[in-house]
Amino acid sequence: MNQQKTHDMHEHTIQDHHSKASQHHDEASKHHQEAAKHVAAGDHKTAAHHAQMAHGHSLHASEHSNEANKKHVSTHASK
What we know:
By secondary structure, this protein is mainly alpha-helical. Helix content is 89%, strand content 0%. The chain starts with a helix and ends with a helix.
């Protein structure tokens, strides 16, 4: 599965990677907001779930950002 994920990452354009990173950051933000609401309500189990989901989206965003940067360098770096 890791090889498939890597393969899929390489098929995106630089613009796609930035767009996907933005989407994942938006999703992470939503999950953090939900986690905060659940902490305030004393529901720490649900808060932890949303915090974990936020973390996963943040990781995906970072992966897309890294791939965009790699592609940018390989496409536009002077050789």
